[in-house]
Amino acid sequence: MNRKTIDTGPLVGEDKLNVAEFYRDATVLITGGTGFIGKVLVEKLLRCFEVKKIFLLIRRKENASAADRLQRMLEGPIFDTIRSTAPDAKERFAKVVAMDAAFEREDIVDDVDKTKLCNEVQIIFHVMASIRFNEVLDQAIATNVTSAQRLYALASSMAELRSIVHVSTFYANCDRNYIEERIYDDVPYGGLDRIQVFFKNLSEEEKERMTRLVLGDMPNSYVFSKKCAEAMIGREFGRLPIGIFRPPIVISSYREPEPGWVDCFHGATGLCVPVVLGKTMWYYGKPEVKPFMSPVDHTVSGMLAAACDIYRRQCTILPVEKPVPVYNFTFDKNRFAFGDMVELVGSGLPNPLDRWLSRIKCRISPWKIFPQMLLWLTTLQARIADEILAWFGKRGSNLKVVAAITTLSNAVEYFRCHMWTMDNSNVKRMLSLLSRDDAQRLDFDGDRIDWRDYHKSYAKGIAMELMRKSHRRQQQRKSSAATRD
């Protein structure tokens, strides 16, 4: 098998990426800008690059318009660095423009906004995705495939378009042991179109049963739908200046905008919440498995460089037929095992006793029986604690927390039991093409991460987000009580 990745751009030494110039006075379009990765992307563009404008396609949510959601986002702590260090912070924030988007419609924006986008946009980052692992397949496809299809159809009419970064996941092809930097167009059952037609007339119960059948060796509908999206891009939009960026498990920030920043508890970060709370929780998995992980600031820096690299490839004369470039944003030399993760996370706890106890309370067990027994006892303990709180007229959330962590643990169990090898030649080549200034501005070499240094801020970041979530819940309860009165 030929495992060599073909680069369609200039050879190293013939050209350099000039990322700062690429974004100077550029108009950028972002989907998923209010999500975990999207927020860091917007913040990085505003703080480090002289962009002209950033359009965010935002869906209306709980009676909040796109403009309301944008304002709420910009008031968040992730943008404190810009507020405190940039004299022109107000002007920078004014560059971000919210647009109401409805991805369930063929035309995702209205005619006025469509004209603006087609005349002004030069760079697109499609970050939006549904990350619910247990979603029925046709719903996952609607969000992760059809939405991208409609966006790229719109992009085909953009006069100034330079580059599109489609954010996928490294695990879109996790049914393979070795993952290359290329599109795998082997969607089963006759391909995406046949699957969509088949699901169209099924009942909800039938859809659930058929989802399990169609997934086959794939662990969930999220990764399967991401695979379908990649195949769709290769078949329908290869003529566009588009590339596929595959991050692995994305975790809290390393250094930017502040060490340890996180605003959600998906994946690996969610499983570390019990360590921070001092709870007891054992997970089934193989302690020796070494997962691919990437801090969110490293991931965003890689995405920003990839957009420039996609444009570089498009500017070459030969070959005329260019394959869609794929970037496996994974680094092999500097991984740690799941079995070491609890000790690393615990090293960031302020109390020495808590650091020692965390190694006993939270573990990765290669035998299912022990996590199952402990879960039963923990659930019983949480139920009793909530009942006692109820006697005193207080609302307990212990059982809810245990249930949420258990659901998450079951959803990602597959990734604690499997390990992959990969090719990341395009990412390595991209790193080598960075100028010295851009390399300082975009630090994304995962092989150079000091994980012990990283985890000094990891637990603190989780604790801070837990406090923010608790404060928001209290404010919502007060607001609801005031409304009733």
Automatic annotation (TrEMBL):
Question: Where in this chain does the record put each Fatty acyl-CoA reductase C-terminal domain?
Answer: 379-467
Q: Name one GO biological process term.
A: long-chain fatty-acyl-CoA metabolic process
Q: What is its EC number?
A: 1.2.1.84
For the Thioester reductase (TE) domain, which residue ranges apply? 30-301
Alphabetically sorted, this entry's keywords are: Lipid biosynthesis, Lipid metabolism, NADP, Oxidoreductase
Q: Name one GO molecular function term.
A: alcohol-forming long-chain fatty acyl-CoA reductase activity
Q: Name one GO cellular component term.
A: peroxisome
Q: Which reaction does it catalyse?
A: a long-chain fatty acyl-CoA + 2 NADPH + 2 H(+) = a long-chain primary fatty alcohol + 2 NADP(+) + CoA
What enzyme category does the UniProt record give? Answer: oxidoreductase
What the entry lists under InterPro entries is as follows: FAR (IPR026055), FAR_C (IPR033640), FAR_NAD-bd (IPR013120), NAD(P)-bd_dom_sf (IPR036291)
The organism's superkingdom is given as Eukaryota
Function description: Catalyzes the reduction of fatty acyl-CoA to fatty alcohols.
The record's comment on protein family reads: Belongs to the fatty acyl-CoA reductase family.
UniProt-recorded name of the protein: Fatty acyl-CoA reductase
